[in-house]
Amino acid sequence: MQTRQQALASAVAAFGFLLAAGGAPGAVAAPPPAGPEAAAALPDWSGVWAPNQGEVFDAGSASPAAGARDRPPYRPEWEAKYVATMAKLKEDPKTDPLQECYPLGLLRMMSVDGHYEFAVRPEQVWIFSGSPPGPKSTGAQTRRIYTDGRENLKGDDLFAQYTGNSVGRWEGDTLVVTTVGLNDTNFVDRTGAQLSGDVVVRERIRLVAPDTLEDRFTIEDATALTEPWVVTRTWRRLLKETPIMDDSCLGKRVDPAALVDAAAQAKVGQAKAGQAR
């Protein structure tokens, strides 16, 4: 039988072996350096940005008015689903979840026709997107990319979300991101393209010019796609004085004319009620 001292020595040795092998199961990898020096070494993505492409995520995809296309590279059953959704959107635009003010989610928030901001810190990168107030308002969207050395969530810790679980690392000035855990109700863009809950989105985000930011997407989904779907989108940095306006998707659902009409009807109702007395 081991003595208490022997057992303790065995436990210490085992822990040392785990550390040498890369850490205990489930452990978070060593975080990247922090502090002012680490922040200063990160690329400058400050300012307000605008997309160089339109609201269709992949220009090779069909829009409701487009003709032949070969993207996304769908499997036959998903192609049929896409065609049916496009037909529904023509008949009833409310088929689009955005019309009910559901979050855009990933990938759609990365093709909003509006303004973007990228907040870069050693431990996280935040992406904010939104459109100007008005009939096409999408509301403000926020995405978090963890760069503190952790891994993507797995198993019971992973559940479907609009923007998924994004983890990144820096390769020089390029942010390499892997996102999992996306829900299968998201629209990729206004055309109604969708992906399964098994999708994995990989990105390489970098400055390709002082005021041009590029995001190269590789979308892997063995359930919905016949091959990886590769899309590159870019943004241009706007003037430093460019303001960001508060926005709410719910605001576009308020029709001023309808409010005036409702107020007028209320007054008529009050007048009739007074006469009835």
Describe this protein's structure.
This protein is α+β, with helices and mostly antiparallel strands and 277 residues long. It has 2 domains: 1-30, no CATH class; 36-256, no CATH class. 21% of the residues lie in helices and 23% in strands. The chain has 4 helices and 9 strands. It has helices at residues 4-20, 36-40, 76-91, 256-276, and strands at residues 49-51, 115-120, 124-130, 141-146, 165-171, 174-180, 200-209, 212-220, 229-237. The protein has a 9-stranded mixed beta sheet, with no helix packed on it. The radius of gyration is 25 Å and the shape is globular. The model is unreliable at 1-27 and 254-260 (pLDDT under 50).
Question: What topology emerges from the helices and strands here?
Answer:
Layout: H1 4-20, H2 36-40, E1 49-51, H3 76-91, E2 115-120, E3 124-130, E4 141-146, E5 165-171, E6 174-180, E7 200-209, E8 212-220, E9 229-237, H4 256-276
Parallel strand pairs: 4-5
Antiparallel strand pairs: 1-9, 2-3, 3-4, 5-6, 6-7, 7-8, 8-9
